[in-house]
Amino acid sequence: MSDNAIETGFQTDPRAALWPNYSPPGELVFRRGSGSELFTEEGLAYLDFLSGIAVTSFGHSHPHLVSALTNQANDLWHLSNVFRIPAAEELARRLVAVSFADSLFLANSGTEAVEAGIKAIRGYQASKGHPQRTRIIGFSESFHGRSLAALAAAGNQAHMKNFIPGDYGFDHVPWEDLAALDSAIDAETAGIILEPIQGEGGIRPINKEFLESVRKLCDEHGLLLMFDEVQCGVGRSGHLFAHENFGVFPDVMALAKGLGGGFPIGVCLTTKAVAEPMVVGTHGSTFGGNSLAAAVGNAVLDLVLENGLLDDVKTKSQFFVQALEQLINKHPNKIESVHGLGFMLGVKCVVPSAELLVALRDKQLLVGKSGSNMIRLLPPLNVSREHLEKAISIMDETLGEM
């Protein structure tokens, strides 16, 4: 396409220079945000219960996060990992101190964190004298990112079509099917990857007994267990990490989204044994853990580890779930059930979820979609009771009009 053609298209549609792989709603553009609200240029306020898909964990323009970012920006933006980055070392120390892990790798995104975990699993098996152990088992309706390996790990055919020429070393079994999982393990299996709370496939917390059985299978067969907590981690479930709800711990874990509060960051945490083969030259990231990202990550940890914050998430979530259940009783022909933990919630719809999403947006409540015909509710962890009540009121009014 010529420059003139691009310019002509841009004049008619400001999005013409972008790939058409997203479909933002019409002319809706937000210019600023504050707490749980987003504001258009005209000053119209929208209640944000999507949080950038579980990213803005403490809402928009939180003063502690703004201060951390601007202070760091005034000092130093980026070095690359050719040099030591004290803020990154501090972030790593703090995450290790509150988790199962002994060390971690800092990346830019959830997909990169997942990719690092996949490499670490295969590298670990090779270091133990099992180079044939390269295959990793995933579960149906999962989502692990948009890179080729992450798509292959999830096995969603709609996402893989035209992009994945083979299986990339992944096997797949139905969600929570223990017999199928047991049968899928063979001499080439290296590990298992799963989300403790599924996101894209429907907001589904894993069954505790099933997860305990998965851990047992891994221990019996010498496999590594990897948790993808890119969406469900960093306080969203009411615990710092979602797997703490079940008392089962992984060997590898991917974090991202909420840890940056809106600034790109990804983390792959591992036990010491898994990290040992990842020596100089085995993996890297130009931007991973740079000064800006590490400063914001530390500021988010300040907030999420603040005394009482996680208890507050649980208390407010319980109130919100009870209010949603009352809506179900009032509108049983529109919505039918509530799923999830903490502030990672899904409402299963009777009406098409896409229609409800648009109707709610028209009344200035922003929510997301998920599998199984659900709307997804991901308010900030510090959302006020007033805004929870406002969201319920908007949903009640919208459902009544549909």
Describe it.
By secondary structure, the protein is of the alpha/beta class. It folds into two domains: 1-46, no CATH class; 64-304, Type I PLP-dependent aspartate aminotransferase-like (Major domain) (Aspartate Aminotransferase, domain 2), CATH 3.40.640.10. The chain has helices spanning 3-12, 51-54, 63-75, 86-97, 110-127, 148-154, 157-160, 178-184, 208-221, 272-275, 291-304, 309-330, 353-362, 385-401; strands at 30-34, 37-40, 45-48, 103-107, 135-139, 170-173, 189-194, 197-198, 204-205, 224-228, 252-255, 266-270, 335-341, 344-349, 365-366, 368-370, 374-377. It has a seven-stranded mixed beta sheet with strand order 4-12-11-10-7-5-6, sandwiched between helices. Strands 1-2-3-15 form a four-stranded mixed beta sheet. It is globular. It starts with a helix and ends with a helix.
